[in-house]
Amino acid sequence: MKYIATCKIGLESLVAAELRRLDIKVDAVLDARVQFSGGYDAMARACLWLRTAERVLMEVGSFEARSFDALYEGVKRIAWNEYLTPQSNIHVKGKSAKSGLFSVSDCQSITKKAIVENLKHAYRTGVIAENGEEVIVEVGLLRDVATLALDCCGAGLSRRGYRTYNVAAPIAETLGAAIVLLSGYGPGSLTQLIDPMCGAGTMPIEAAMIARNIAPGMNRAFAAEAWRFIPAAVFASARGEAKDVQLPIAPDIIGSDIDGHCIDLCKLHAKKAGVTVNWQVKPLKALLASDVRQNAIIVCNPPYGERMMERKQAEQLYREMRQVLEPLPYSRLSVITSHPDFERIYGSRAGKRRKLSNGGMPCTLYLYFRRG
Known about the structure:
Blueprint: E1 2-6, H1 12-21, E2 25-30, E3 33-37, H2 40-49, E4 55-64, H3 68-77, E5 89-97, H4 104-123, E6 134-142, E7 145-151, H5 173-182, E8 193-195, H6 202-211, H7 232-244, E9 253-257, H8 260-273, E10 278-281, E11 296-300, H9 311-325, E12 330-337, H10 342-346, E13 352-358, E14 361-369
Parallel strand pairs: 5-6, 8-9, 8-11, 9-10, 11-12
Antiparallel strand pairs: 1-3, 1-4, 2-3, 4-7, 6-7, 12-14, 13-14
């Protein structure tokens, strides 16, 4: 089978690396998606283990579609009865780029109509009840080629299941994990990791799960588990294997925030995720060299001055960050922000920069490296 792991722009190489670590064959690395292939077991492992992807899709057909008639006929030719029943609640999502068929809503409507007509003929019935489990079908058009796929996830992969409560402008779990991984943190790591403005605690919790090699999808369900053509043993086996490789270590991770309410939520989220983090209520300026081990990793998602604070306040915070962080014996510092002049205001040029997106806003991840 052919599959697609979708992701945020800038994270394609991370997703591909994750798939290769799972011994899954990567076929192509493209903008905002990685194509891979394998059996249903590969799909189940990808759903359970991908930390930085947004969704896993199973491709069921691909063809040229320069007109709505071509789209309708191409969709209708797919053997939908291999995947859907007359009771399947069919929900069609769509997207289009660089294609003549640019009206996504029309493409969705035509795709749904073609699927229903196909199922009526295949099951010799005049009615498709759609009163069963929801099945998400994605129709994607790129350069006049239509790709039809089933969404294996249901809720996106960022929905790990542990973040029950939110604070203002939270970072997505998938992006939080990506920042931790890009900072050089990995499974089995005993390097100290600190997030001094942790908000809802996403990055410290993701770091703890990475260190202990806990599959991020262990405590949630996936849409593909309800598909009649997927053996129940596929996901059960993948979960069993994932449980066997968890590491019984206690990583040194600190998450702190000036807001005590945020830390209360962090504690709830960490407990639900099954990890332990050293949570502290304190302002950034209270982070001292005595708190930081040699060669520690520091990650930050400070306010951008667009959602939470006025820009001038955010800029003052960036200057304070430099004053506080510069004396610390860290080896790597990662800061994500949408502010275009962060380096100038912070007062130091990053060793590396990576263009990312957070909540739809173009951002840059600034990576600082030094010897402790």
